[in-house]
Amino acid sequence: MKYLGFLIALILTLTFAIGLSVNLGQIPPLGILFDPNHGFWQNAYSEDDKYDNSIDLEGLNDSVRVAYDENLIPHLFASNEKDLMMAQGYVTAQHRLWQMEFQTMAAAGRVAELVGKRALDYDRMQRRKGLGFSAEVGLQFLKKHHPETLVLIEAYTSGVNQFIDELGTADLPVEYKILDYRPEHWNAYKTILLLKYMADMLVGDKDIEYTNLHALLGEETMQKLFPDFPNEMDPVIESDKEWDFTPYEINKPEDLNYPDSSLLIQPIPTPEPGVGSNNWAVDGSKTQSGNPILANDPHLNLNLPSLWYAMQLSTPEYSVKGVTLPGALGVIIGFNENIAWGMTNATRDVRDWYAIRFKSDKKREYLYNDQWIQSTLRVEKIQVKDDTTYMDSVVYTHYGPVVYDETFRGNGQKINFSLKWTAHEGSNEQLTFLELNRARNHQDYLQALDHFTSPAQNFAFASNNGDIAMKVQGKFPLKWPEQGKYLMDGNNPAFEWKGYIPADQNPSTLNPERGFVSSANQHSTSQTYPYYIFDDSFEHYRNRRINTRLLEMENITIKDMQNLQMDDYYLHAAEALPVMLDYLLEDTTRVFSENTEALIDSLQNWNLHAQPQFTGPTLFTMWWEQLMSLTWGKYKREGMPIVFPSNYQTTKLLRDQPEDSVFDNPETNSKENAKQIVEQSFLAMERELNEKFEEDDDYSWANYKKTSIQHLAPNFTAFGVQNIPTGGGKGIVNATSHRKGASWRMVVEMGDEITGKGIFPGGQSGNPGSKYYCNFVEKWARGAYLDFNINSYPGQGNWLFSSVLMPND
Prior knowledge:
Blueprint: H1 4-20, H2 30-33, E1 54-57, E2 64-68, E3 74-77, H3 81-108, H4 112-115, H5 120-129, H6 131-145, H7 147-166, H8 174-179, H9 188-202, H10 207-217, H11 219-225, E4 278-282, E5 293-297, E6 299-301, E7 303-304, E8 309-314, E9 319-324, E10 333-336, E11 339-345, E12 351-356, E13 365-368, E14 371-374, E15 376-382, E16 390-396, E17 402-404, E18 416-421, H12 429-438, H13 442-449, E19 457-463, E20 468-473, E21 488-489, E22 508-510, E23 516-519, H14 542-552, H15 558-565, H16 571-584, H17 594-604, H18 616-632, H19 647-656, H20 674-692, H21 701-705, E24 707-711, E25 721-724, E26 740-742, E27 745-749, E28 755-759, H22 777-782, E29 786-787, E30 801-807
Helix pairs in contact: 3-7, 3-9, 6-7, 6-9, 12-13, 16-19, 16-20, 18-20
Organism: Echinicola jeungdonensis
Protein name: Penicillin acylase family protein
Pfam family, one: Penicil_amidase
C-alpha cells in the first residue's frame, strides 16, 4: 500500500475539482467513494502483487501463458490465434478497461450519459458526423465479407467481458467510482467504432474556412497564398519516381457554380498543424551493421492513460511486439521476426461538404440533378444524466449525414451541410493489422494494406531480407483539380466523386536509390503523380529536416536514429529569423532600449535548436505569432472562420515579396510592407512577453510550452502530469508542444537478431494508484528508450511475474 498516500491526495484534489467543475457535473456519492472496502482505497495497488495467478477463461482451446517484464509489459504465448485474441482482450481489460470504454463512449456520442447536459453539444456532433453509423456499416461489412475477422473480434470481446464479469465494486477502476457508473459489456461494434474514432481524430478539412477566404480574397490571391505544390516540398515518395500504370482520366467540368454564401458555422476541430508524425527506414547501404533500421514516432494528444499499451503476442506461427490500441486486436505499430512497420498520417482530403436544398422544413426530399429525391432520417437518442433523453433527428442524403442545419450550429443560415467521408463506407482496417502481425515479406505487407481505408496513412516498412518501402495507403477519391477544396453544390452531379484511385496506383516505393524512405505528413508526391492530391495541412519543415539528415548520414546506428527522433533543430526559425532580424535592424540609426537590445542579442546568439533551457525559441515563436496575426488577422470576420496561409508560404512572401499587398492594412492611411509588419510584431511580442512573464521572468522554452499530459477526462487534473521539461515544438522533428508530442517512439534494427527500442509518455497501467501509471514519462521527456526485444517462450525466465489463462472446462 505504499502508493496509498499518493492516491488519497489525488482523490481529495479530484473531489474538489468535480465540485467546482463546469464539465463533470455532480459530486459522486462520497459514501461509496470513501468506503474502505469498496471505494478508492481499493485502487491503491500496483499490479505486480495482484495478477500473479492462474485464471479460468471460458472458450479457450488451450492454456495461454502471460509473462510480465519489469515494465509491466505482458508477453502472451498461445497455441493458436483465436486463444491469443481472447487472452489479449482479457489482459488489456485488466489494465485499461475504463480507457477502452470511455473512448468508445466518446466516439459514439455518449458522454452526456456520464456527466449530464453539458456534454450534449459534443454528443450531438459525434452522432451527426456519423461515427456510430460508420461502425454499423463496418460491422455489416465484416459479417458479409470477412467473417473470419469477426470470429477473432468476438474472441477478443469474450476475453474483455469475462474480466468485466469478475469485477466487484471494490475492483472497479477508480474513474468508475468517481463518476458513479459500472462498465457495460464489450462487443464487436465497439472495436470497429474505436478504429473509426481514430479515423476521426486524424482527418481534417478546411472546406468552410477556404470557402470564406475565397469570398474575401478571390481566386488569384488564393492561388498565390495556397499553392497546390509549394517550392521545396520534398514529398513522401521521391520526386523522380516513375509511375508504371495507366491512370484514369479525370477532367474538370466547365462552368461550375459554387454555393454563394459566407459561412458562419463552427467547423469540426481538425488536427493541429506542425505536430504530426514521423517515420523512416534506411537500408543496409547506410547502416553500420548492413541491416535495415526503421523508426516511427506518431505525434498525438498527450493523455493518461496513454493511448498505447505495449504487448508481445506469440503463437507457433509468429511473434509480434509493439504497441496495441486498447479495444482493438493485434499490434498496431511494431515488428515481428521478419518485418517492421510504422505509420504517419497521410493528411489527404477524404472528407467533403455539400450544400443541400430541401423541399420543405420536413426535409424528406432534397434537390439533386434538379429532381427531388428521398432523404432518410436517423433518430439519435442521447441519454442525458439527471435529465430527459434528447432526441436528435439527423437527415442522411446520398452524400452522408447533414451535420449542420438550423437546429445545430447553423447560426441562422438556411444552408444545410451534408458530409461525404470515406470512413462512412464499409472496410476492414482491423484485418490490416492482423495480417501485418503475421507478415513475412514485402508482398504480405502490400496485401495487408489493401484492406486499409481510413484514416489515410503512410506505412513505412523494413524486412529481414533487406527491403525497405513506403506506401501512402487509404481509399482516395478520384477528383478533378480543386474538387472538395470548397463547399460544393449538392444539386449538381458534376461535384460527385468520380470513383476511387485503385489501391495499386496509390503512391508507393520499394528500395529507392537514395537508400531511405521517410514521411512526416508532407505532400505525398511531386507533380508527376497523375492524380489530384490536396490537403490543407501538408508539412513543410519536419520532412525537409529529416530527409536532409538521412541524405547526410552514413554508418547509421540505432542510437543515431534515436537522436534524429529527438532532433530539435528549428528549421522554420532558421529560414525566417534572419529575414526578420534584417528588417528589424535595417535602420542602423535606430536606438533600442536596453531590454530590447537584450532580446535581440538573445535571438542573434541562439543556435536555432529548441532545447528546454533556451530562450531563443520562445522569443521567435512569440514574435512569429504576432507577425502572423498582424499579416492575416485583418481578414477575420466575426463568427466567420477562415484559415491562415502556412508558415512556409508566409516566410516565402516575407523574404521574396516584402512590398506585396498582403502586408498592407487597409484600415490605415499608409501602405504597410513586410519591414513595418516585422517591426510592429516585434514590439507586440515584447509587450506580450512583459505581460506573460510579469511575475516570473523565466521565459525559457520549457516554461513557455509547459508540456503537460492530461487524464482523458480533462477535469481529472490530479491524474495528469504537468509542466514536463521538453524540447522540440511545432514543425520540429521532435514535435512536442504543450499538449501534443510523440505518443510512441520506436526504433527497430532488423537482422538475424532483431533489436527493438521503444518508449511512450505514460505507463502500462491505467490505474493512477499504480507505480506503472506514468513511470515512463521522465525517460520519454529526456529521450531515453526501453529495451524492446521479442522474447521467446518464458519457461523459467526472469520475469516480474506471470500468470496462466486456463480453459474453463
